[in-house]
Fold this protein.
Amino acid sequence: MRPLSLAAPLALFLALAGCASKPVMQDGIRVNDPFEAQNRRVHAFNKAVDQRVIGPVARLAGDGNDGAGPGTMDLVINAGANLSLPGKVANSLLQGRPEPAIKNFFRFAVNSTLGIGGLLDPAGTDFGLPEHDTDFGETLAVWGVPEGAYLELPVLGPSTQRDAAGKVVDLVIDPLYHLLHRDAAWAAFGLRAASKAGDRARFGDTVDSVLQDSADSYAQLRLIYLMHRRHELNEGGTDIDPYAADDAIDPYAE
């Protein structure tokens, strides 16, 4: 699928993002969820998939690391994260932010060579080059595209109309998508997907707490996602990062 073939549906999708219904407030956070009925059905599907497939596999992979050094899952996470860096470089440039683009470029260069194709992270541990995370959803935010309605995507989980469109464009603008042979590009995509599954193992207890122990896991996941995403993008007027230890909240606390 090429960029031109995506232009028309993406333009329509982003136009609809500006036509959302009146938002409501949940724990002081603006929530625009006109598709809640459909989203809850997708959430039930995602929750079942996580409980029966993703969670058990992630726990099994996590148990395979004896802590003596990087385990197999750590190597997969490192390699997948490394392959995502060219796309982050492209997005930083589209946002007019050359500094994180340069740092991510050199991080990719160091880890792809000294880090044995990204399996190891000498850029972060030895050269002081941490990853600067970004995506096309953030690029759209910088360009002034509204957040749109909340969505829960099959398998991929929480999103918004803007971020869902960004996920599609990220696949298209990724330099590796254009430089690698088709089979190699699919292999890289699979490794990046496996890296995301590795994150499930790394944060397994937190994910289990939200999905399995909440009175309303859909509402809690929606709240956490919107707070965290707006904190990342400096949107929504909140200074709270729900993933930071000092700012962690329980939306169901009395």
User: Anything to note?
Assistant: The first strand starts at residue 24 and ends at 26. The chain has twelve helices and four strands.
